[in-house]
Specification:
By secondary structure, the protein is mostly helical. It has helices spanning about 5-35, 40-50, 55-60, 70-90, 100-110, 135-145, 150-175, 175-190, 200-205, 210-220, 225-250, 255-260, 270-290, 295-310, 320-335, 335-355.
Length: about 375
Amino acid sequence: MSIPNGSLHLVGLSYSKIFPQVHQELAYWKKRAAEIPDEELKRQALSSIQTKTFHCEGGSVYAILARKRWKEAVRFIVAYQTISDYLDNLCDRSTSLDPVDFSFLHQSMTDALTPGHVIKNYYKYRIEQEDNGYLVELVTTCQKTLSHIDRYEEIQPFLQKLASLYIDLQVHKHVKKEERVPRLKNWFQNYSSSWPDLSWYEFSACAGSTLGIFALVSYGLDGRASSQLAEKIFESYFPYMQGLHILLDYYIDQQEDEEEGDLNFCSYYPDELVMEKRFLYFIKETEERLRSLPDRRFHRLVAKGLVGMYLADKKVKQIKHANRMIPKLLNEAGLKAKFFYVNTKLYHKVRPVMSLLNYTPVSGQITKSP
């Protein structure tokens, strides 16, 4: 699989190879989730797959960087993103508000990045326990893929650093409502000197993305694992590329989060004009930071794809002043972002038809992850 430099090539590979493979992997995990005996855990596992499939689709675009080993990369990305989405549901929509529980659950995400690491009972501090090995199998699937990366030890510290930031965010933002903002502000104090241009809520958004992890693992599978490349990926993706990703995600979820009483980082901007200015800043900084990477055209395409994809979401119609803000963001991101914007709108229209035609699995079969 060649690494695309153009929008049409990227979209073609995504639709013809990446997305069908993603759906084949998810079909297996959906089957496994349906076998969970605990009703609450089953409900959250199935819901996370059903409502957040697009997370796996978008993240798996990075599998292209693995070239001939792209299917292994998809397998890792889908499994790791499914852990992330499942735990997000357990922390956000389930029965616990205990930070100790959240922290222990998320140890699965660091264990998943450590081949051969001892598996734990990640449900130790919650009522629900029986998942028929679902979470452990997700973890070991990730471990098995990573165990086949040469010189994995060179990139692992950077993967763990990104995972640690993600986990800290998930713990702090899911506790009791009155504790969330104080905890996040206090957490940011440890990093504010390194990123003085960020607010506490922008830094929190930057920590909430898994894109840097997916890029690093895909390069590793392609035989390009090195501490030098890992450092470049980290510095290019964190904070701005990852922040752009998650701020856009929160932007389209504003109405939903307000109705559900969930924390939304976009709500902390003083007004829409400030938010617009900061989004434009993140787009510019992302563009600049990605210039130093190998395959920079690919990384820049993904960044522009993020802008176009999120702004094309149906939920944007519910957002106040979106009609004024969207054109400005698309103009800043450029013609390729506008291409992805139009393409995503079309995809939303044809996707229900594709599902009816049994588009999802490549082979029509559910295959067990090794």
